[in-house]
Amino acid sequence: MGDLPGLDLDTLNEWRSFASRDPNPDEFLYRRLLMAQCKALAEGIPALFDTRQNYQALFLPGNLLNQDSIVRRLVKEIPEEDWQDIEVVGWLYQFYISERKDEVIGAKSKVSAADIPAATQLFTPHWIVRYMVENSLGGLWLEAHPESKLREHMPYYLENPNNSSGENEDLRSLTPQDLTAIDPACGSGHILVYAFDLLFEIYKEQGYLERDIPALILTHNLYGLDIDERAAQLASFAVLMKARAKNSRILRQPPALNITAVRPTHSQTLPPAAELKAEDWEPLVEAFKNADNLGSLITPPPFDAQKLKAQLEKLENSDRNPLFREYVPALRGLLLQAELLSKQYWVVVANPPYMGSGSFNDVVKKFVNTNYQNSKSDLFAVFMELGIKMAVDTGFMATINQQSWMFLSSYENLRKELLTKYTIESMVHLGARAFPEIGGEVVQSTTFVLSKQSPQDRTGNYVRLVNYNSAESKEKKYLSGEHRYFGVNQADFAKIPGSTIAYWASNRVLEIFGQAENIKKYAQPCVGLFTCNNQRFLRFWYEINIKLFGINLSKETVNSFCLKWFPYNKGGEFRKWYGNNDYVVNYQNNGREIRKYRVESGQSYSLPGEAFYFQEGITWSFVSSSYFGVRYSGKGFIFDVGGSSAFPNEDIINSFTGFLCSNVAFEFMKIMNPTLNFQVGNVANLPVIESLKKPINYELAGQAINISCQDWDNFETSWDFPTHPLLRHNTKHLSEAFTIWQDKSEYAFRELQRLEEENNRYWIEAYGLQDELTPEVPDDQITIRRADLDRDIRSLISYAVGCMMGRYSLDKPRLIHAGQPFDPTLHQSFPASSNAIIPITDQAYFDDDIVTRFIEFLRVAYSPETLTENLNFIANALKLKNGESAQERIRRYFVQEFISDHIQTYKKRPIYWLFTSGKKRAFGALVYLHRYNEDTLARIRTDYVLELQVKLDGEIARAQQQLDNASSSAAKKAATNRLKELQAQQLELRDYQAKLQTLADARITLNLDDGVAYNYTRFKGLVYEGSDLKMADLEKASQWKRELL
Q: Which chain positions lie within coiled-coil regions (predicted)?
């Protein structure tokens, strides 16, 4: 009890008396003791514990001693050794706010002031903290005192013998107490805690008494700011605990800490007290009114700190109005945050907030746009500029942030200023997965140390860890000494277009960039159309009426036809040479509707890149998860940002395509921008050598384009799909057809690989990069498809359904019906459905059901003689269950799997719609979108659903009879289950029939131009909906249409 002020034996007995009357006496006493402990801690750690106890007790959760209470979980689930780490409270706080952080980021909207702390906090891996602190604070001390033994305590320090040490007289005079270090986004104090350790070693080396060092560090050296008050409190707690570990008595008279939250002011901040001069305080009050949004970014106006402190002293000692004294703590806090933000520091170290400008609320956006033009794209870059501003001349700034500032054009001015004025002393380029809790490729990081010294006589050390896929492996490789680039002269970066931080670029590459012309002189890359509403103006080509689709047209002839939809390059997945021809755009009447909408949206009437529409060119995917996917684009395409394009002359288009598809071009692109975005500016700045400038007969690229084109057309999602690959050879045996296809696709794959390697070899030699690049291309970078039995059998089934619907025909190649009037004479050998309605049920209730039709398709397409063999081949490819026949497996595929395959193939815009009664699968029927008419629903109801109801009545009667006649318990159980199943299906079917009748009476007509997303939702409750096709997603995608109605 001696450690708990105010808790004597009488008080304890009084508590026991109260507890005896409480329903949970142990809980009562525990809560009282816990609050007494907090009161005791408030004397030594006032930043974290408040002496005002009453309100705190209100926030304590109940049942603290229960088995599942938070206290029990903390004790049981966290190992005891973890509690020995001072920063465990910080870890718990990050976990506490992580759920809110995910919610805020996931919302993809403007982030409010209240949510900024949760959205921007991220715990820094310890080894990265050590790198930053050792190479900034430690590096500064070693430069000032090269004789110091401090490097023995710094395993993450990167020695740089090229930079002078001990020659700067200003640095030589540095004492330990001069070493001010601030973290302007300190969070729970992870960086400050390690800075404490390093400062302790510096003081100790200089002969200070160990018991005196902690107070000196807290008083003179460590500073911290954060927008989150709770985080700042935890940072204060962490450094105090660190100090207490070195001096157990420090909490008896704790020094005043230089760590605080940056708190907002308001109209009631300043009381009308005579002791306070309003004209002295009001500028500060005004400056911090948006501190909950801006935090450390605020620059306070000039003020006289001593004068303001004297006024506070008078107010605190005044008896004139005791209520005014209650304002003193808040005003002291205001003064402290203003003082900390007005100073400069020898070292600034931070893991700053990450928040893109798209998430800025209005206050943040206005402030950043006004004060940080060069870094306004993201808060992490703003904090780079802030850190440099907060550091003294010859001081150091260290940070970890996203690598985008190193490469993107939006940061070019920031890079140029940084590279000309300051020195990057060292950098560890981390890439993806530097943080254990962040997976994937999106967040790519770098950490670096910058000195506010001229780069003229200094160089930098760089460590490249981007190819390691875990935080642990990155640290291990860092310590191994591998992948290091020493003595890099940052002036060389100016030779690279955009001054990107491509520290790994060889002298030969730098020479090429410095001497060669840019590609834009010979093939102008440009950004294309921005529609302002892609949901309204774009479709997948298979959604539309093919009669309104124009391909292979020139700009001069495009308006000669009554067409609406035209091919549209929109990027897509990584693919080279040819392909990703998925989209079409509404460019009817020279894009009249788009132009009108753009003007209404505040854009220009003229269309970006319009001069190049419909021209033959080269396109690439703006966003990629891996490599530079460049493709030839034939005549007749429009293009957008995601499918940016370049347009060389016709006589050099093959050579330019070959160059852009080579690993040489990709290497240059990575030097200019190794992020996931391949920007037009980067392509425009690719260096061009003589062999690219003049026409050459570069047949290699043409061959590669042809192979890739043939591969693209092997699948029905190409508008030039002729027929299925398994039907192109005169054989009765499906297994033999697959073997032929397998051999042909493998040959094409290897031939394209050979051509790609020849292409690489040609350009490697042309650019003189034999010592740096090799021509080999691994299998995973060849972007055409090999045969795949499971995929190809499923696609054959899809083609068969297309023949049943009349979309395709066994008598004629290519697309037959996709909006045109149906002509049954085009389907002689295998007749298409007369109404494009094909029932799918778990039993063969209909003569024209999908399984019956599929068997007939195989009979006609191959041979009656091999029907059983081919059915077995298909069933085995789909993987049979034990005891399942081939026809049973095929029926199960149609009932349970086909629609999901179709939705995936057609990218959530299906053209065969599954009308289904529900989860019991009493009834299902595929309907072909392009042959739907206002009578279709009535036909489904009268021809199939009503007939099925009659058949189910008969099935139920038979099941009842089987149950009545069952002699064994097993037979009775089976008959009972079957009866229940049939009865449930009949109930489902009755409800479905009623819904069908309602919509059938409405005689709904469809406009294919409205797209699948809108048209499908008009049949909500009648058509398939699942996790792979959510009605809510389709409704969102077609909101534009509802707004027009």
A: 965-1002
